[in-house]
Amino acid sequence: MSIPQQPGPRSPDSPPPGRREPDRSPVPGPAGADAVRLAATVERLRRRLAEERAAADDRALIELAKGVLVERLGCGPAEADRQLTGLARRAGVSLLELAADVVNRSAPDRLTAAARDTGGPAAAVRLRAAESGMLAAGDDAQRVAASILAHALAPLGANAVAIWAAGPDLTLTLAGHAGFLPEEATRWRHIPPGVATVAGRALAERGSVWLRSLAESGLPSIGHREFPGGRSTAYLSQSAAAAAGVV
C-alpha cells in the first residue's frame, strides 16, 4: 500500500495552491510596435506620393494637348480647355484618352506607333502620360523611374524599374529606381566594371537583354531577392557617341 506524501513547506516565492505560475516570458517592447507602425506609415506615404505623381503626369498630358489645340485653333488656353472637354464628352471617351489622341495626331512618332501596335487608346494614354512625367521630371531620374513604372510598365505586369547611368569606364551607378525596397537600392548603388549583372550584360553587349527568370539566369541583379522567379529586361539607352545608361 502506498502512502501519499504530505506536501512539504511552501516556498515564499511559490504561488498559492490552485493558482498558476505567472508567465514571466519576455513580451515585445514598445520599440517593435513602433517599428511596425513606422513601416506602415512609410508605405502609406510612398503609395500616396506615387498616386500624386501619377495624377500630376496625367495633368501634364492634358496641358500638352491643350497647347496643341491653342496652336492649331489659334485660341487661348481657356477656349482650348472648353474644346477638349467638350470633344471628350461628345466622343464618350475620357479626357486623358482624347489628350493622348490629340498629341499622337499632331506629331506621329515611335510612341504613336507603339500604342497602335500594342494596345490602342489605353496604351496611348500610358505611354504619353509616362512621356509627360519624364519631361516634367527633367534630370530627376528618381521621378523618371516612378513615371515609367506607374504609367508604362506596371500596367504590363512589371514590379519595379531601375535606371543606371554608365560611366566612361563602364561602371554603373543607380540613378533612379521605383518598386524596389530602399535597402535593396542601397546595396546596388554602384556596380564596378566587369561585374556580371543583367544591366552590365546589356552594356557589354550593346543591346537589350531578356531573361525569363532571374533565378535560372544565375546573374545577380537588383531585385533578385524580392523577385527571384521574376523576368528581367535590360534596355540599353545610347547617345550619338556612346552608351548613356541602362533601364
Describe the structure.
The protein has 247 residues and is α+β, with helices and mostly antiparallel strands. The chain has two domains: 45-156, no CATH class; 159-247, Beta-Lactamase (2-Layer Sandwich), CATH 3.30.450. 52% of the residues lie in helices and 11% in strands. The protein contains nine helices and seven strands; from the N terminus they run ααααααββαβαβαβββ. The strands form two sheets. It has a five-stranded antiparallel beta sheet with strand order 3-2-1-7-6. Strands 4-5 form a two-stranded antiparallel sheet. A hairpin with a 5-residue loop joins β1 and β2. α1 crosses α3 (95-106).
- Strand % is 5-15%
Q: How many E strands?
A: 7
What is the percent of helical residues? Answer: 40-55%
Apparent shape? globular
Structural class: alpha+beta
**What strand line-up does the widest sheet have?**
3-2-1-7-6
